[in-house]
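Supplementary Text 2. Reproducibility record for the structural model of the 370-residue chain.

All settings were left at their defaults, and a single model was retained for analysis rather than an ensemble. We include the record here because the model underlies the residue-level annotations in Supplementary Table 4.
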Amino acid sequence: MRSLMRIWIAGCAVALMALPLLLVDPGGAPAAQPHGLTVPAQVSASNWSVVPNAVSTAPAPFTGQLSCVTAAFCMKVGGPLILSPSYQAQTWNGTTWGPLLTLPTVTGATSTPTLTDVSCVTTAFCVAVGGAPFSGGTSPLIEQWNGTSWSVVLVNAATTTSAILTGVSCLSVSWCMAGGIGSPGPITEQWNGSSWTMASLPLPTGATAANPIGLSCGAPTSCMLVGQMSVSGNNQPLAEFWNGSGWTSTTVPLAAGSTGFFMAVSCAGLTFCAAVGTNTQGGNAINLAETWSGSAWNPSVTPSPATSSNTLYGISCFSATSCAAVGTAPNSGGTATVSQALTYDGQSWHIVAPPTRLARRTPFLPAFRA
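Retained model, structure tokens:
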């Protein structure tokens, strides 16, 4: 399990905080979001407020992945794969985080499972994905929330290989897509309302390894699976597109001689996605953000608050003209890692200042999506 979770990314230094924060945007003109959540048509620095996270008694801070159905219901689980996710879940009621939820025992698992992502379409239907270790390897793990409790719906205790799901996107109670790391290439699981079907994807041409990290679907015929792949020993962005019947590798343009990878993606509708991560140019890691038009990736001039060690970990797009992304960067003196936030207006990216709180510790915003 641990060998599977070691994604070696050059130049990426991650600092975990003791008290994770949630940034909330409560105002603005409403616009419909695919899962029914009412969100602002545009996000801006003035809309953000900070909400202290409930701190668990677990050995590691609970910096997890979020999915919100309404302003009064969000589900948080585990955390992104690159941050050694935990086996925890918690709900938000619009005012406070509740106590940790009881998660099911995975029969036969040799150690604690992990949850890497979650997607909710109602307060009574969420899907969480991850992995569970067994004596023969690591099995993809899928769990479902019914409004009161979590249950295991897919795991293979007899597995003889190692695979883990790293992203999930549900559009209804009868349609979900999940993706993750298999051997040798990516894997996907599709839900049709009654059963899950697994598919194995070939490695992209020229790649010797591929590690999906994020997944988003704008429609049942439009999904994007993103992450990192190794080409000639260098990190390159991975981006696999689902058209409703099959997956296709897409080409992500980077500056000549540079390397990079995607950490997250958000799709709004059939022809728009935005993916974020980091791009290393001349030894300096700067923010990476690109948009998908339905047929090609379009590189964007992406501002970075520091000259190096910038990474965007999460993104949520409400439409093709309104996205927000979060991540980390060094402070002005280079003495600590602090949070960063960017917004996209359909034309360009803009740095916005997230609220300052708990300055004595490192704010860390790894995940952000509706």
